[in-house]
Design a protein that fits this description.
There is one protein chain. By secondary structure, the protein is of the alpha/beta class. It folds into 3 domains: 124 residues, Beta-Lactamase; 159 residues, 2-Layer Sandwich (Alpha-Beta Plaits); 251 residues, EAL domain (TIM Barrel). An 8-stranded mixed barrel has the order 13-14-16-17-18-19-20-21, surrounded by 4 helices. Strands 2-1-5-4-3 form a 5-stranded antiparallel beta sheet, sandwiched between helices. A 5-stranded mixed beta sheet has the order 7-8-6-11-12, sandwiched between helices. Helix 10 links the parallel strand 11 and strand 12. The relative contact order is 0.05. The structure holds ligand C2E and magnesium ion (2 copies). The site of ligand C2E has 19 residues, from strand 14, helix 12 and strand 18. Ligand C2E binds next to strand 14, helix 12 and strand 18.
């Protein structure tokens, strides 16, 4: 290697080191001299100073909290066989700024010299801190999150065990939080979470508050002597919600659902106790707002059944556990069966017969209803084809369709493909939706009804009169049939019920809708309906839902 080349390499090192923000240091132990490069001085904002050894540097620059450790680490390095000295410490600049640095060094033992580098770690440490914060704190509220909650619960449970004390876990969720985001915008949702978290944090001294996810919060009430204390805290939260929250330029009213689980009564496991408070909160949501629910075993059993149903439903089609029964719809004046409603049944190997009223909502929540609904359409179409081939006459078969299915982009395509494949007229299928479904679908999705009608299918409104929806949709949307809900028929002997039924009949006549009275069970109900000119019924009085074989027998009779 010639000299010219060596000089060039030194130049390269110098440029790289100063450009890369690395400082160089060397401690000559025999000559009691420490060299610090320009970059080192730049980090610490000091001008050249003289040091006899590196301990003096540590003493001068390293933050007091890290100083003893830094000295220990250097001592250990000098007396041991460790190859490289590394120490991550905070230093204090002349301007009083804290910086994180990584000090590295290597011993040339024969020369009694330690040489090394100092790298600025401040940005890396700031990022690490942020990541750490994300792991343990909620970004919006700044409150500790679920990870911290579980750790805290572990400690509290231990304390409760040792001291035979009690604590409560309170789960609070803002109802319909998404509506606030949808109606006003996300910034209002964020503002609400911040204010609400402050409300919870200011409730009482012995409460720890955690932000879990979305609009869910958990409070731990420590060292309680009786249940009244828990109730008092919960009622306080509810009473805060009686007043409007000021969000940016608006006033917003909210309601919350609250669930409580108690330590040690309900569990001594940190994950379970949190889950139980959450389940109790969900129970409050089902019951309606402003509810406080204390966890008990029945809540857990309901949850367990729901989970089992959800799991078992996944295999219901494959295991051939689903089948359909058909309830006739008959015109009692013309003595004619005009059609059927297809009603799904499920007989599970573990749980036995489960009512659709129980499993359909679960299938809707899990999304399984889309596949199950397709299976129903396929099976009904098979039956229609079979009956048509055998020359049985009826107008249509009604299939219950959930809003989840209607929201699915492929719904209409799937429906059309099935009827085309089986060569069935679309008018043989009546899509049954509840009033709730119309409310459930947002404006942009309502178009689906027009498309269904355009393709030649029929639409019936199920359980009419129970959905609290505006009558306006009857004039805007294209329906064929109104099914008067069983609850009106049940009380038909009452004048008021009779008045509502007459009203629905007149309305339907004017709008050209067919009317079916649902759940007609007695002769009295039948006669009352005939009195006011309502002749089409579906109910036990004419027939319970029947299986496919009985269906053919019945069609043969009429
Ligand atoms: P729905 O559509 O209103 O069905 C009518 C329900 O009333 C059926 O209950 C039927 O068996 C019952 N019913 C009919 N006549 C009488 C009567 O005279 N007296 C009494 N007490 N009950 C009568 P089911 O089969 O238990 O169905 C309950 C609900 O489950 C249905 O209410 C419907 O909303 C839903 N459902 C059933 N099958 C399906 C399906 O394939 N898909 C969807 N999405 N929902 C379905
Ligand atoms: Mg129905
Ligand atoms: Mg109904």
């Amino acid at each position: 290697m010639n000299k010219g080349k060596i000089v060039k390499i030194y130049d390269v090192y110098n440029r790289a080191i100063s450009g890369g923000g690395i400082g160089i240091w060397e401690w000559n132990i025999e000559e009691n001299y420490v060299f610090l490069s320009e970059n080192c001085y730049r980090f610490i904002k000091y001008t050249n100073e003289k040091f006899n050894n590196f301990y003096e540097c540590i003493d001068k620059f390293v933050l007091m909290q890290d100083r003893d450790r830094a000295i220990e680490e250097l001592k250990l390095f000098t007396i041991s066989n460790i190859d490289v000295y590394t120490s991550e410490v905070r230093i204090l600049t002349k301007e009083g700024k804290e910086k994180w640095v990584l000090i590295k060094g290597k011993y040339s033992k024969n020369k009694k010299i330690i040489s090394g580098s100092i790298t600025d770690l401040t940005i890396k440490k700031q990022l690490e801190n942020k990541i750490e914060k994300l792991n343990y704190y909620d970004l919006i509220t700044g409150l500790p999150n679920r990870n911290v909650l579980i750790e805290k619960l572990k400690k509290i449970i231990k304390k409760c065990k040792n001291e035979k004390s009690k604590a409560a876990v309170i789960c609070v969720d803002i109802d319909n939080f998404n509506l606030i985001n949808d109606a006003f915008g996300c910034e209002y949702g964020v503002a609400l979470l911040k204010i609400f978290s402050q409300v919870l944090s200011s409730l009482k001294n012995n409460i720890d508050v955690f932000s879990i996810s979305g609009s869910k919060f958990v409070l731990i009430l420590n060292q309680i002597s009786n249940y009244c204390e828990i109730e008092e805290v919960c009622k306080n939260i509810l009473s805060y919600c009686d007043k409007p929250f000021r969000l940016i330029d608006n006033q917003v009213y909210i309601s919350v659902s609250i669930g409580v689980a108690c330590i040690p009564e309900n569990s001594l496991n940190e994950n379970d106790i949190y889950r139980y408070a959450d389940l109790a909160m969900q129970q409050s949501k089902i019951k309606g707002n402003k509810m406080i629910t204390f966890f008990d075993k029945s809540i857990y059993n309901k949850y367990l059944r729901k989970i089992t149903i959800e799991q078992e439903l996944r295999h219901a089609i494959k295991n051939e556990e689903l089948y359909i029964v058909y309830q006739p719809q008959a015109d009692m004046i013309k003595h004619k069966i005009i059609g059927f409603e297809a009603l799904l049944r499920w007989e599970n190997r573990k749980l036995g017969n489960i009512s659709p009223a129980e499993f359909i909502p679960i299938a809707e929540q899990s999304g399984a209803i889309v596949e199950i609904g397709e299976w129903v359409i396929n099976s009904v179409c098979d039956k229609i084809l079979e009956l048509s081939k055998a020359n049985y006459k009826f107008e249509s078969v009604a299939i219950n369709i959930s809003p989840v299915q209607l929201r699915n982009k492929n719904f209409l395509n799937t429906l059309e493909n099935i009827i085309h494949k089986k060569n069935i007229l679309p008018s043989m299928i009546e899509i049954e939706i509840t009033e709730g479904t119309i409310i459930d679908l947002k404006k942009s999705n309502i178009e689906i009804f027009n498309k269904i009608i355009e393709k030649g299918f029929k639409i019936a409104i199920d359980d009419f009169g129970t959905g609290y929806s505006s009558l306006n949709y009857l004039t805007i949307l294209p329906f064929n049939t109104l099914k008067i809900d069983k609850s009106f028929i049940d009380g038909i002997e009452k004048e008021k019920n009779m008045a509502v039924i007459s009203c629905i009949l007149n309305l339907s006549k004017a709008l050209n809708y067919k009317v079916i009275a649902e759940g007609v069970e007695t002769e009295l109900q039948m006669n009352k309906l005939l009195e006011i000119g309502s002749s089409i019924i579906q109910g036990y009085y004419f027939s319970k839902p029947i299986d496919e074989k009985e269906m053919e027998n019945l069609l043969g009779e009429f």
